[in-house]
Amino acid sequence: MLIVTSDKITGRKYEELGIAQGNTVQTVHLGKDIMAGFKTLVGGELTSYNEMMTTARNLARERMIDNAQQMGADAIISMRYTTNSITQGAAEILAYGTAVRFID
């Protein structure tokens, strides 16, 4: 499936089907969360949170694609991510965009 962040696909005609979306809420293991807390005292990259967010983005994107395919879409335009902190160490990722079907 073609996914673009632009608001159109140049050279293609298509009809808009609606908003495709997928989300997930992810958390890290308690031990990793405690270690990340210690890491904030000395500074540096919080790799366990990076891994969590990468996993969450991938899962949310795949769920958005599944949602678009259920609508009969060939592509998603204006794709975006948004995130929200749910609790300490847990975050929601939402992937969304406009599902479109190509017109030949």
The number of distinct structural domains comes to 1
**Low-confidence parts lasting 5 or more residues at pLDDT below 50?**
none
How does the helix and strand content classify structurally? alpha+beta
CATH architecture: 2-Layer Sandwich
List keywords for this structure.
single chain, 104 residues, alpha+beta, Translation Initiation Factor IF3, four-stranded mixed sheet, 2 helices, 36% helix, elongated
How would you portray this structure in words?
This protein is an alpha+beta fold. The chain has a 4-stranded mixed sheet with strand order 1-3-4-2. The chain has one domain: Hypothetical protein apc22750. Chain B (Translation Initiation Factor IF3, 2-Layer Sandwich). The protein is elongated, with a radius of gyration of 17 Å. The protein contains 2 helices and 4 strands, in the order ββααββ.
Give the topology, please.
Elements: E1 2-3, E2 14-27, H1 30-42, H2 47-70, E3 75-87, E4 90-102
Parallel strand pairs: 1-3
Antiparallel strand pairs: 2-4, 3-4
Short structural description:
The protein is an alpha+beta fold and about 100 residues long.
